[in-house]
Write a structure and sequence with these properties.
125 residues, mainly beta, 2 helices, 6 strands, 11% helix
């Protein structure tokens, strides 16, 4: 197991439906934000792209993660390490701003801009 930081938003944040599926840790979350762009898909849920200059609030989760758990998170997001360009989401390490203005490195899953439907609506912030 490795201790890793993750930037999460939406249903992966603490208290939401998917948090406990992947993160077996308590009190290991804190607010964080990145720069990017958020879109709402026609099916109703939001996705975040790394490209853009909006502040996207979320959480930083620091947790021990096994290789199996990381593989499950990759599969959940439709991310392939072999062909990332064909993946629905891309997992990437990014800088996340903490509440005190510092930056830390965290893994995040970002929607593949090549897969963004034309019907997606930018969520204004």
């Amino acid at each position: 197991m490795s201790i890793m930081n993750f930037y999460v938003y939406g249903s992966l944040t603490n208290g939401e439906i998917h948090f406990n599926k992947f993160f077996k840790c308590s009190n290991a979350t804190r607010p964080g934000a990145i720069r990017g762009s958020a879109y709402r898909l026609e099916v109703g849920y939001p996705v975040v792209l790394k490209e853009g200059d909006q502040e996207i609030p979320g959480e930083i989760v620091t947790c021990a993660v096994s290789d199996m758990a990381l593989n499950l998170m990759d599969e959940f997001h439709g991310f392939s390490r072999v062909t990332p360009e064909k993946s629905l989401y891309i997992r990437e390490e990014i800088d996340v701003r903490t509440e005190d203005g510092a930056y830390i490195k965290a893994n995040g899953y970002f929607f593949n801009a090549l897969k963004l439907p034309k019907s997606a609506k930018l969520i204004p912030h």
